[in-house]
Structures
1.
Amino acid sequence: MNILEKITNELDILSKSERKVAEVILASPSTVIHSSIAALAKQANISEPTVNRFCRRLDTKGYPDFKLHLAQSLANGTPYVNRHVDENDTAEEYTSKIFESTMASLELARKSLDPSLINRSVDVLTQANKISFFGLGASAIVAHDAQNKFFRFNVPVVYFDDILMQRMSAINSRQGDVVIVISHTGRTKSLVEVASLAKENDATVIGITTNGTPLAKECSIVLSVEVAEDTDLYMPMSSRIAQLALIDVLATGFTLRRGSKFRDNLKKVKDSLRSSRFERKD
Amino acid sequence: MNILEKITNELDILSKSERKVAEVILASPSTVIHSSIAALAKQANISEPTVNRFCRRLDTKGYPDFKLHLAQSLANGTPYVNRHVDENDTAEEYTSKIFESTMASLELARKSLDPSLINRSVDVLTQANKISFFGLGASAIVAHDAQNKFFRFNVPVVYFDDILMQRMSAINSRQGDVVIVISHTGRTKSLVEVASLAKENDATVIGITTNGTPLAKECSIVLSVEVAEDTDLYMPMSSRIAQLALIDVLATGFTLRRGSKFRDNLKKVKDSLRSSRFERKD
DNA sequence: TGCAATTATGAAATAAAATTTCATTTTTCC
DNA sequence: GGAAAAATGAAATTTTATTTCATAATTGCA
């Protein structure tokens, strides 16, 4: 585990003097890795042995070992960050920035997901009579992709990116049906209405959206996908990728729940594509 | 820079004894960060001052500082790896694995992309009379997403995920048109034919695929997206996400090339959606 | 090739840093 | 309010790293 997080967690277990040490370290960890035990003790206004005891309490062998852990934590800390593309970036620069922002978003999204809700969603999906995916704009492609995955499972699955079709489908839904609505903002009026209609007709509504939005309020289960601020270019970017990864997670959960025989079936679906491909000569 | 790489690079600048030290370190860096200078000297069969000199030659302050750098380098190494989902994984476990595999794939994809080819592709795209995106199966959603992005730029853009429409469109293409074909395997027969038809009709064909495949051979520019081995579940996962990130890169390159006035225009497109949304009350 | 100059190396001395011991102070709990 | 426990730091000790300096190896040049 990251030692900085560990310090934060154990802050209340520490004694008064040890907490002083902790505070100095948390305030400027990168300085500390270049300080001697004496310098740090002075900084925190406590004695050297206290620093040493502090280190041991965090399960390190002593001060030098602690510094090693700290250095590693710093190296690990958010390896990918959301950097904005700049007007004068070269192709190499904006490529790196976009990929790294995407990775940072995935990292954040994973942290914000609640595994127990994923588990419940998988429960619901495996027992569904029919599954519908609805999205508009950038989220439409996520719904499209979800259909692509779930239809392999041999369950009735539809996807619509058309408002009227979504409404009609929602009105026709019934108990045992699962409706998955996808929207990053959670504020698209027509989609909120669709969710509400589906709910009124006793379908289970799962929202892939942000917590606390109007759409979230209409859902039985909210899979909240937090995403770093989108870039300045006025296009949805990372959000849909995080949503797609979530679809992968749900599909995977589904196949795991169904057991190994079911997975043999997936292989057959894949093999059925073979004749449409050029052979690979490895 | 990673200090392990640095050691490797400077191996030939080092003296005989110093090289012994380097070899011991490279052989087992993780052991070294827990060794004292005396232990390492003994291991390498040289004296302690030699170790110290070695450290300084690598621009560190001394042995402890060197160990710090080494620890950080070790911590940086491949933060995300492609771990396979296991039969008995909990929801939390498979969620983490999928997100991490996706991130690992993005990392790999970014490394495999050639910025100069991206630059050329952006050149071609900004000068296109018409842009078409073709994909099938999982790649269809990438084409779909690309259309979603590029239509905002106010250039004629189409996307087809239907073989016949793709063929017809390809046959009707002409000089100045750009056709982007998307396929991870690069072996889908009908798509290779479509690429070939477009090429015969003097369109510029950009392939988002893997180098060396039949599809790649038909393309004027190949944007090769390498991706880690897909998981065992017989579904495309990371490949389409890496492709989407690449679409983001192309779209971004496009807007940067077009200049700032053009970007104001994008804002207008985005703002036009406002009335379809519930207001945010922050 | 021979020899001075340069560079590399390690033994020993020194310096620096970390840890242990132990006495003192502070806190806790009855 | 006071004994027991816990926390703390001064000083001593130990461990670790660095410097100094003498010697050995290598290089460059006549």
Note: The first helix of chain A runs from residue 3 to 9.
2.
Amino acid sequence: MSKLSFAILGQLMRGSRTGYDLAQEFRDGLSQFWHAKHSQIYPELQKLKDLGQVKVSEVRQSSRPDKKVYNITPAGECALLEWILSPLPDAPVRSELHLRTHSIHLVPKDQAIAFYENELARTEAEREGFEMQLARLEAAFSGIPSSENEAFSTYANLKFGMENRRQVAEWSRWLIASLHA
Amino acid sequence: MSKLSFAILGQLMRGSRTGYDLAQEFRDGLSQFWHAKHSQIYPELQKLKDLGQVKVSEVRQSSRPDKKVYNITPAGECALLEWILSPLPDAPVRSELHLRTHSIHLVPKDQAIAFYENELARTEAEREGFEMQLARLEAAFSGIPSSENEAFSTYANLKFGMENRRQVAEWSRWLIASLHA
DNA sequence: AGAACATATGTCAAAATATACATATACAAA
DNA sequence: TTTGTATATGTATATTTTGACATATGTTCT
């Protein structure tokens, strides 16, 4: 069972989805903490079906191409629940931004400043995105959702994203100021 | 030219290294922002040699196995400098911690709390590691290294690591408190 | 004397991921 | 009418990364 399997099961636990639906979620909101392309998703759904962790029902559509709707099975639920709190392996970090920063003393300062100004703008835009989503969730639930609700999990990750972008932005500003000095 | 190539060139820019040296650096300090195993490094050094971006000299040793010392070439330097400020592609995020958090509402609260208490301890330990390294660098340079110095780049990444772990720890504490409520 | 460990360099197979190829329907815009 | 876009599902190929296998030297500890 790959990590992608659990990513998919986690989504199916929130309701029925097609491979296409999942691909869109991995491209958009979900992409803040996991990412996958449809070329990975379709074969993975097949594997999960063979393992009996999801079941599929084909739905005929007239206005659109037919689709395959996937649901999690009790076996799938069981596997998901076991995985959530199992020991977390320390994931190898690969940040190209910091790989570049590691050699930043080699380049002209003005160009480096422009580079990080650009990164800062991206980071701020992302932070605003998180803040808007958080505000929407808070409005819908009149505050923080209770911890039994799936919206709580979503809230926790959105909050992380917002705080994280804030931290990255602050660091970028420090770096830009240091390069100016 | 893969990202690993640039990771290696960045290290060789700081001085001669063997494949073994690089593997250790990727396992230890460098691993905070890039990671690679020796099984990836040795073939990559071969490719870089074929491209003329590094040169190798074999060193006979009496007290240890012979070794191959790699140096960056002018062509390698040129490729590295071009890469540092080139447009940064947005890297797909894959955080297993947040993938799990996405389903945290499904598990018993007390077990979830224990899980995040454990993560918090790891994060704090990492933060202390960064703080100690930062303190050592500051002591060695009597403050922040100047931005032309390679120690500046190292300092910037250590500072990021420290601030990042602080943010992650704060979020973990918030999450634990929310699960208690 | 034997075991464990750090040094040192490689290869091979499998898994994970990305990029491109491939096809089909329906709707809206130009 | 043709072009583009969203829906919908796949396969094929290449690259990246991991984990296991493989070997050899010298030192230190028991």
Note: The two ends of chain A are 51 Å apart (CA to CA).
